[in-house]
Write a structure and sequence with these properties.
mainly alpha; Rossmann fold; 2 domains; three-stranded parallel sheet; two-stranded parallel ribbon; 5 strands; 53% helix; globular
Length: 335
């Protein structure tokens, strides 16, 4: 299938950390720079409705939406080349979610790995939004008839649900949706600097566990210096059970596009290599993030500009979404 339209979303968690950056945003910028289609066929959405599955402070959420948009722009997303918009400002996301919900089974949703993980043993107490948000995610994609979805491997199950819902809806009501294809990112999953068995997260109680894209040079130096590794004096190509070292290699690889095996080879035979590796990686991360931090600090001061980006993008997204909703309403017999 030719790439006709790409859609991806990101939650407004404020300023992203480097895991978000290399896992999603950096990939988006690459897609944008290589995309041959029109701007309206490259959609990047701030999915603020998804954020409501956990309790939010309204002011913090509002600030986080603007911080996320400023971060996307600072990282290289160009609103002249990509459509950047806010999910909640396009009410058709919610409308299509209801239509799809009436075609999705509870069995499908109960099998979602993230539902099992996030709800844990308290499934009866978890909110309905957490249970059904994969349907909203499917609606996000299908509303714009996206053909390709860039995601990490942790989201494959959700895309499979989207494909299933598209196919079942098409079978029942007519050929409305293209069945989307996954564009699987090759970026490694970045782990916590303090507990490298866990994924990097801003919700970690230890703030030295993650590097945000706006961290100062001194903060980056300190966090990487304190990053957990191990006491083995030499590096090897077998990094099993050496999660901390593997994590630093993955960050280095993702930031430089160098192969992990080439990075490992560079430090082979260097005794107590971690000190040199951390120093070199610190330079790499600072060089990558310094211009992003500077651009972010410039953009975040212009709230009117950020409002304009979201308003203009959301207006265009509404026009695209309405075309799909009109077609769906007709096929459902609602019009």
């Amino acid at each position: 299938m030719l790439i006709k339209r790409i859609f991806s979303g990101i939650q407004p968690s404020g300023v992203p950390h480097i895991g978000n950056y290399v896992g999603a945003i950096k990939n988006w910028v690459d897609l944008q720079n290589n995309f041959k289609g029109e701007r309206n066929n490259l959609l990047f959405c701030v999915v603020d409705l998804h954020a409501l599955t956990v309790k939010q402070d309204s002011k913090v959420l509002r600030d986080n939406i603007y911080s996320m948009v400023a971060s996307l722009l600072a990282c290289g997303i160009d609103p002249k080349k990509s459509l950047v918009f806010q999910q909640s400002q396009v009410p058709y996301h919610s409308e299509l979610t209801w239509y799809l919900s009436c075609n999705a089974s509870t069995g499908q949703l109960k099998r979602m790995h993230q539902w099992k993980t996030k709800a844990g043993k308290e499934k009866d107490e978890a909110n309905l939004g957490l249970f059904s948000y994969p349907v909203l995610m499917s609606a996000d994609i299908l509303l714009y008839k996206a053909t390709h979805i860039p995601v990490g491997d942790d989201q494959i199950q959700h895309i499979e649900l989207t494909r299933d819902l598209a196919q079942s809806f098409n079978k029942q009501y007519g050929n409305i949706f293209p069945v989307p294809t996954t564009l699987l990112t090759t970026a490694p999953r970045i782990m916590s600097l303090r507990n490298p068995k866990n994924k990097m997260s801003k919700s970690d109680s230890n703030k030295n566990s993650c590097i945000n894209i706006t961290d100062s040079n001194d903060e980056i130096v300190f966090k990487l210096k304190k990053a957990v590794t191990d006491s083995a004096p030499y590096i090897t190509h077998d990094l099993n059970n050496r999660e901390g070292v593997c994590n630093l290699i993955d960050i280095y690889s993702a930031m430089t596009n160098k192969r992990p095996e080439d990075i490992i080879q560079h430090y082979t035979d260097l005794e107590y290599f971690t000190k040199t590796l951390k120093k070199d990686l610190t330079d790499v991360v600072i060089n990558e993030l310094a211009p992003i931090r500077s651009e972010y600090e410039r953009i975040i001061k212009d709230q009117a500009y950020l409002h304009h980006i979201l308003e203009e993008g959301s207006n265009t997204a509404n026009e695209l979404a309405l075309e799909t909703i009109k077609e769906i309403r007709q096929h459902l017999g609602l019009r």
